[in-house]
Amino acid sequence: MRLRAGIPLAVAAMALASATPILALASEPMQVKSYAREFFADFAPSTALDMVGRVPGFTLNEGETRRGFGDTGGNVLINGARPGSKSGGPREALSRIPASAVVRIDLVTNPTTSEASGQSVVVDLILRETAVSGSWSASLTRTRDEALRPTVNASLSGPIADWRASGSIQFRPWSDPADGTRRRTGPAVELKLFEQMTRDVNGVQLMLSGDARREALGGEFVVNGRLDGYDVDVRFARSGFIGRLPAGSVDQLQGVFFDDRSLNAEFGAEWTRRLADAATFKVLSLVSWRQEDSDSGSRIERPLGTRTSETLSISRRNMIEWVGRATVSAGEGRLRQEFGGEAAFNRLDSKLSLTTRDSAGTLIPISLPAADVVVDEYRTEAFLNLAYDVSPRWTLDAKVASEWSEISVSGDARNRQRLQFLKPEVSLSWRPAPDLSVVAGVRRSVGQLDFDSFAASAEVGADRTQGGNAQLRPQTETRASLDLDARGQGGLALNAGIFHEWREDVLEPIILPGGDFGVGNAKSARVWGARIGASTSLSWLARGMRLDANGEWRESDFDDPLTGRSRRLTNFTPWTYSVELRQDLPERKLSWSAKVSGEDKRVSYYVPEFSAFGMDPEVRLTVESTYWQDLKVSLTVLNPLGRRFTTDRTFFSPTRGSAVTGREATRVEEGPDVSLTVKRSF
Questions:
Q1: What string of DSSP letters covers 536-565?
Q2: CA gap 315, 371 in Å, rounded
Q3: Does residue 5 surpass a pLDDT of 50?
Q4: What is the pTM of this model?
Q5: By CB neighbour count within 10 A (0-12 exposed, 13-18 middle, 19+ buried), where does 144 fall?
Q6: How far apart are CA 75 and CA 483, in angstroms?
Q7: For the chain, what percentages of helix, strand and coil (3-state, to nearest 5) are there?
Q8: 638 pLDDT exceeds 60?
Q9: Residues 438, 440, 443, 447, Cα dihedral to 10°
Q10: Which distant-in-sequence residues (6+ apart) come within 8 Å of 619 by Cβ?
Q11: Closest CA to 53 of 115, 105, 114, 127
């Protein structure tokens, strides 16, 4: 109770502190590269999202999905502030802004405010007031099963009474058919089961979002809201041949289904006011709610028409989050200060029913730890950020935050724990030239727990279950990094970085106290890697041609408590890349692009198995034309030669520290998608 009563104190203290004088001294401005609206004219953008995609050397970062607000933002600011919505992210906010409202886009290197927390490079969109404007787009996609799926997007922005408002709507049905095989072998690689399978996925999504702003109480008041829902149906049909390759009649038939429905709502409000001494005071409140209903099942007939086994899973989850945040910042001067506090409440109410029916028709419940639980978290945080210009070329940033939280679990499992963490951070930036910056830093952070790990879960199609763990603690991380950003003539841009992380209390699959399997805190681990991004003009090769490339390589080291051997962390992807070649021919009102992106296999470790998931690179070919007045028409071919997905599983008994009992290899083939899109702005 004492912790809960103290939660609002940090926010209240920040509001009272707004009367405190803030030191402001003369200094050099931040490193900023500006792109006026005219820079994007040849691309005929209809929304701010189209413009951001053309900023040289910039890759949009959607941010992280975390509880709270402070560390979840991406690398986009709007008039110096990050979008006030969590679930929609910067992409959605940009899609609501008409291109005509953008005065310029500033590319900011090494930003110092919490609005750009954790980002080395951000874009800041400077907007102006305009009359009513908007855009719409309509797409028609042909999938592998020759079905035609329409997608409709529309956005509108303009004045309403004393408000400046914008809103958008999206309707998107989709289908994703595929064919494949699944092969199961024994410990000596002898064939146990070969299956031919088909997959049929159908879904529909509807999303509404909007925001409105006006002057109020000497500052700017902004409200935003979002409502979206989806319904997805997945059907697998697996024709099996026991101990042999496909020939003759089928030995068994397995049907698997997933019916997932979700409804999400979010509402937020924020108020910002300029104070004396070039200071800014900002308060924000955000509440979100999510309901997920998932029904899945598996039925095996052997021989056909005779039920051998049947499993049914029914999952119901409700999640709610409230965040309150206040900051006071001084954006000018040689010494810049920012301090504030954040309070949050999170709740997960999860219920899982798992049953099986044997060949005699007997219904048997399957018991899992924490199948019916309620998880509550109360959290508060106070922080202070300082940025000091040591000289025109050197800037020192120091940040410190203290976090207090209380997590309680009730229902099938019970636990209560109080946690406190100190999170310091320091970085030093060097600007030896106007278009070159180098930043070295060290920070300590606390990972956000996935509430789903507190509750039991079941994957019927994979024959995998995990119990919930009420004893979870967040992992802590110390990260050292070195980043470089360089800009040259002709739109040349290069950003690169290296890092090393030391992690404690990492979350990995373990054997729970009752003997079941689940996620728990394990030992320490290390993660290190490098990233590079480059953008350059290839006009020497062909007029209007440009190349953008991004890549990241990572490695990790973790001592597996089940095997005693070193391995990578679970769900770890060692490398990713993206390369896009584009040519713009404005005099012909034409442009084309070819983009290839891919990643290495992702390995997931469980107590009795490990699984490696891989996929072919994604290939996207696009041709755009603005030949027709006020219309942009584009034709996109996704994966023209199709795309293959692979999953390789290795089973052990009773744990991965024991002998191999079998293997499973799944191969799924998806066909190409062809989309025709028409856009118009007004």
A1: EE-TTTSTTEEEEEEEEEEEEEEE-TTTSS
A2: 9
A3: no
A4: 0.85
A5: middle
A6: 16
A7: 10, 65, 25
A8: yes
A9: 50
A10: 594, 595, 596, 638, 639, 640, 641
A11: 105
